[in-house]
Amino acid sequence: MSVVNLGPIETTTVNAMGTGARTPVALGASPCALVNQCSTRVVVMVSAGTVSALDLSLDGVTFDAAGLLGGQLILNPGGVLKITYVVAPTVVFWPM
Fold this sequence. Notes:
Elements: E1 2-6, E2 11-14, E3 17-20, E4 23-24, E5 32-36, E6 42-47, E7 50-57, E8 64-65, E9 71-75, E10 80-87, E11 90-95
Protein backbone atom coordinates (compact mmCIF):
# COMPACT_ATOMS: atom_id res chain seq x y z
CA MET A 1 0.00 0.00 0.00
CA SER A 2 1.37 3.41 -0.93
CA VAL A 3 1.11 6.27 1.60
CA VAL A 4 0.65 10.02 0.99
CA ASN A 5 0.79 12.49 3.89
CA LEU A 6 -1.66 15.41 3.74
CA GLY A 7 -0.20 18.59 5.15
CA PRO A 8 1.04 20.58 6.75
CA ILE A 9 -1.15 23.39 5.49
CA GLU A 10 -1.47 27.01 6.45
CA THR A 11 -4.82 28.09 7.88
CA THR A 12 -6.40 31.45 8.56
CA THR A 13 -9.13 32.01 11.13
CA VAL A 14 -12.04 34.20 10.02
CA ASN A 15 -15.02 34.64 12.36
CA ALA A 16 -13.81 31.71 14.53
CA MET A 17 -13.68 29.43 11.47
CA GLY A 18 -10.46 28.02 10.04
CA THR A 19 -9.98 28.28 6.30
CA GLY A 20 -7.16 27.37 3.97
CA ALA A 21 -6.16 26.68 0.43
CA ARG A 22 -7.54 23.85 -1.71
CA THR A 23 -4.61 21.48 -2.24
CA PRO A 24 -4.42 18.79 -4.96
CA VAL A 25 -3.11 15.32 -4.00
CA ALA A 26 -0.79 13.20 -6.16
CA LEU A 27 -1.84 9.61 -5.46
CA GLY A 28 0.56 6.72 -5.20
CA ALA A 29 -0.11 3.19 -6.43
CA SER A 30 -3.45 1.60 -5.56
CA PRO A 31 -4.41 1.11 -2.80
CA CYS A 32 -3.22 4.52 -1.59
CA ALA A 33 -3.55 5.65 2.04
CA LEU A 34 -3.94 9.39 2.66
CA VAL A 35 -2.85 10.32 6.21
CA ASN A 36 -3.99 13.63 7.73
CA GLN A 37 -0.76 15.13 9.14
CA CYS A 38 -2.44 18.52 9.72
CA SER A 39 -3.28 19.86 13.16
CA THR A 40 -6.90 20.34 12.10
CA ARG A 41 -9.64 18.32 10.45
CA VAL A 42 -9.60 18.31 6.65
CA VAL A 43 -12.17 17.66 3.94
CA VAL A 44 -10.97 15.26 1.23
CA MET A 45 -12.84 15.41 -2.10
CA VAL A 46 -12.59 12.30 -4.31
CA SER A 47 -14.05 12.54 -7.82
CA ALA A 48 -13.86 10.93 -11.27
CA GLY A 49 -11.56 7.98 -11.95
CA THR A 50 -12.63 4.39 -11.33
CA VAL A 51 -12.71 3.90 -7.56
CA SER A 52 -13.57 0.46 -6.17
CA ALA A 53 -13.37 1.26 -2.43
CA LEU A 54 -12.96 4.10 0.08
CA ASP A 55 -12.05 2.96 3.59
CA LEU A 56 -11.53 5.07 6.74
CA SER A 57 -9.31 4.39 9.75
CA LEU A 58 -8.36 6.10 13.00
CA ASP A 59 -5.17 4.07 13.50
CA GLY A 60 -4.06 3.08 9.98
CA VAL A 61 -4.54 -0.62 10.81
CA THR A 62 -8.29 -1.23 11.15
CA PHE A 63 -10.32 0.12 8.22
CA ASP A 64 -14.08 0.49 7.79
CA ALA A 65 -15.84 0.92 4.46
CA ALA A 66 -17.05 4.47 3.87
CA GLY A 67 -19.99 3.21 1.80
CA LEU A 68 -19.13 5.66 -1.00
CA LEU A 69 -17.04 5.64 -4.16
CA GLY A 70 -16.53 9.41 -4.24
CA GLY A 71 -17.56 12.69 -2.65
CA GLN A 72 -16.43 14.63 0.43
CA LEU A 73 -15.02 12.84 3.46
CA ILE A 74 -13.80 14.37 6.74
CA LEU A 75 -10.49 13.24 8.25
CA ASN A 76 -9.50 14.07 11.82
CA PRO A 77 -5.81 14.67 12.59
CA GLY A 78 -4.05 11.31 12.24
CA GLY A 79 -7.00 9.82 10.34
CA VAL A 80 -6.41 7.69 7.24
CA LEU A 81 -8.41 7.40 4.02
CA LYS A 82 -7.51 4.38 1.88
CA ILE A 83 -8.47 4.71 -1.79
CA THR A 84 -8.52 1.58 -3.96
CA TYR A 85 -8.82 2.32 -7.67
CA VAL A 86 -8.31 1.07 -11.23
CA VAL A 87 -8.11 4.56 -12.78
CA ALA A 88 -6.78 7.24 -10.40
CA PRO A 89 -9.43 9.71 -9.23
CA THR A 90 -8.97 13.44 -8.79
CA VAL A 91 -8.32 14.15 -5.09
CA VAL A 92 -8.08 17.53 -3.33
CA PHE A 93 -8.24 18.53 0.33
CA TRP A 94 -8.70 21.67 2.42
CA PRO A 95 -8.87 22.46 6.15
CA MET A 96 -12.13 22.75 8.05
